[in-house]
Design a protein that fits this description.
Length: 84
């Protein structure tokens, strides 16, 4: 009975459009979170060939942790040989 009173008071000032706006916002946040996770944290990959046949078979699905991989290495070496 107390929950009905609370829901009734909170629901009196809400229109139908604000409910759909809230659902849309929740959906948008969920989609942005999923894209961010896939881009920066974890990615699903299918093994394309049998190169690691003892442990992974062609067609296996694995999840790659992108946080452990770290930043890509940058080649800063320049050619030190001078032209003569």
């Amino acid at each position: 009975m107390i929950l009905r009173k609370i829901r009734g008071q909170a629901g009196e000032h809400r229109g139908g459009s604000s409910r759909w706006r809230e659902y849309g916002l929740i959906l948008l946040v969920a989609m942005l979170g999923a894209v961010a996770l896939k881009t920066f944290v974890v990615e699903a990959v299918v093994i394309p060939s049998a190169s690691m046949e003892r442990t992974l078979f062609a067609g296996d699905f694995i999840l790659v942790n992108k946080l452990v991989r770290g930043a890509p290495a940058v080649n800063c070496h320049t050619d030190t040989q001078s032209e003569a």
